Amino acid sequence: MSGISGDGPAYGFYGDDFTGATDTLAHLARAGLSTMLFFAPPDPARLSMLGRLDAVGIAGAARTMPPHEQQPELARVGAAFAALGVRVMHYKVCSTFDSAPQTGSIGVAIRTLRAYCANPLVAVVGGQPNLRRYCVFGELFAAAGADDHQQSIYRIDRHPTMSRHPVTPMNEADLRVHLQRQGLENVQSIDWRCYAIGDAALQTELAYRLESKPDAVLFDVLDDSHLRAIGRLIAGQATARSPLLAVGASSVAQAYACALNDAGERGEVNAAPASLARARGPVFVLAGSLSPLTEVQIAAAHSYLRVELDPLQMTGDAASDYLATRVAAIAGPLRDGRNVLAFTTRRAAHAEEAAHSALPQLAHACAALLKAVLSKVRLQRIGIAGGDTSSFAVRALDAWGLSYLSPLSAGVTVCRLHADRKELDGMEIMLKGGQMGDADLFEQLLNGYNTHT
């Protein structure tokens, strides 16, 4: 069993955006594994300062990158994890697997990282039940809706949001075909019925699948018992001499943690609180996501002064002047103790298409806005909504890492920022993807959250 023994971290993960990376950080930390999430591969001095870690993460932005940028980014990550001696190398993707051959290609990621993993198995974990993401006979399904009682489950190519994603629309539900379109010609699969036959028989089934030397093996996931079986298989296959590449959402980390628990191996118990106290000062939320769920969350944020951000003006010829006015409109009320929610708007149907075409520039503009706001007012807690917005915004800050602080909602975590600059170090930060969180998420961020109530 490959657990947490050894000198270095046994588990390394790269998040293809920051929001997903913090979710994986949370699952590992709550499983009792000492975990730190870095913004770049850490140097030996930084690692020495932190002491022993069971798991190391790197938060990136590969989901927004074309292949010629993605490949060198992930080659650096693969080399760093190999140098640390990790046994499981996890490429963390969105639970909806949204990606495309020319943007955030999972195929490019697998081909690049596989060079640093000697194991013949590349495991693709297809679902995450706690987020209502399910993979059945290779096809992906996901929930939609702001309220648990109102959510419906859709095949991903018919999902009301993900099938219409402005950059990487999911128009294929069969993940084998989806990955084949990204250059993985031979994708084998193990369906959910195999988990009931026992670990030994599952190993035999896997050995049969590996005979064709596949580019990847896709594992169905319908419930947590499936994750336990997958976790035992992954942990049993991965060794120091033959590290294994795993691809999927935070369900990969959940499966790994289950395997450690089943084997009686755990890290030191993490002292992170299970609740979040009410904010001690004004809270700033930057919502760059255009998802319907984020719109619901904005509408429910009654305790905030709302500041609209026009995507077209933020990315137009006079963007610097426009951003200066928006920064002033945000920083002034924050200095006066008011909570502020700045959000990108959809002014009209004809403007939405143009706004979508400017999405990469919009994420950079949001990052510049956040950096400018924080240069004018010191805050104890902030929130950022939108996967791409989060990735670029946090990278723009002069900080080096995140540690787990508290859960807030399914798939949403509050972390502590680590920076060499005193005014940033220790700031509490929530990062959320467009599809994540309860309707009153921004109110929860302000008022705190207790898992026992």
From TrEMBL:
InterPro entries: 4-carb_acid_sugar_kinase_N, 4-carb_acid_sugar_kinase_N_sf, NBD_C, NBD_C_sf. SUPFAM superfamilies: YgbK-like. Keywords: ATP-binding, Carbohydrate metabolism, Kinase, Nucleotide-binding, Transferase. Residues 12-255 form the Four-carbon acid sugar kinase N-terminal domain. It holds the Pfam family SBD_N. Residues 285-442 form the Four-carbon acid sugar kinase nucleotide binding domain. GO terms for molecular function: kinase activity. Belongs to the four-carbon acid sugar kinase family. This is Four-carbon acid sugar kinase family protein.
